[in-house]
UniProtKB/TrEMBL annotation:
Keywords: Membrane, Transmembrane, Transmembrane helix. Its main location: membrane. It is a multi-pass membrane protein. One of its GO terms (biological process) is protein retention in ER lumen. It comes from Colocasia esculenta (Wild taro). This is Protein RER1. Coiled coil: none annotated.
Length: 196
């Protein structure tokens, strides 16, 4: 019986070590991509175009595209919705989380699905759908114009409901035309004193 610690620890399984190293490296590059919003979205657009080109050239996998489209609508709704839905707020003593009048205190819009997670989920969805096009089991024969019509109707109805929700609770999920904090500006007397 070796009590002094002479027995060596078992070495980690090579597959588990590789998985851990890959996960760590993937997270590192994912973190590095966070501030590069335009580059991330351009990459996702490229992946989406490659997927669309593959579906067009194969003339199939329309059911995969339809499922992808429904998933993208679901993500878009999460991206356009506030983190706390005003309809679900308790109307008791608690103040509303979104400003409802011009005199209310400015509160920034906090999304239910942040931009980075929105981008990441869309990119993963395109990659999964692209990989599904390599397996013929997912190429279910369907009349694609009907699926397209269903998707357009679903999109219009969902966006109409979301826009009416935005109008009712007076919020805009984009930064266009909103006040931005620019920091404190020095007064003219202190700036002239610095020059002298």
């Amino acid at each position: 019986m070796d009590v002094g610690g002479g027995a060596a620890e078992p070495s980690p399984v090579p597959l588990a070590k590789w998985r851990s190293d890959f996960s760590r490296a993937f997270q590192y590059y994912l973190d590095k991509s966070t501030p590069h919003t335009m580059g991330r979205w351009m990459g996702t657009l490229a992946v989406g175009l490659v997927y669309a080109l593959r579906v067009y050239l194969l003339q199939g996998f329309y059911i995969v595209s339809y499922g992808l489209g429904i998933y993208l609508i679901n993500l878009l709704i999460g991206f356009l919705s506030p983190k706390v839905d005003p309809e679900l707020e308790v109307m008791g003593d608690a103040p509303p989380l979104l400003p409802t009048r011009g005199s209310d205190e400015f509160k920034p819009f906090i999304r239910r699905l942040p931009e980075f997670k929105f981008w990441y989920a869309i990119t993963k969805a395109f990659l999964v759908a692209f990989s599904m096009t390599f397996f013929s089991v997912f190429d279910v024969p369907v009349f694609w114009p009907i699926l397209l019509c269903y998707w357009i109707i679903l999109f219009v109805m969902t966006m109409k409901r979301q826009i009416l929700h935005m109008i009712k609770y007076k919020y805009i999920p984009f930064d266009i035309g909103k006040q931005k904090y620019t920091g404190r500006r020095p007064s003219s007397s202190s700036s002239s004193a610095i020059k002298d």
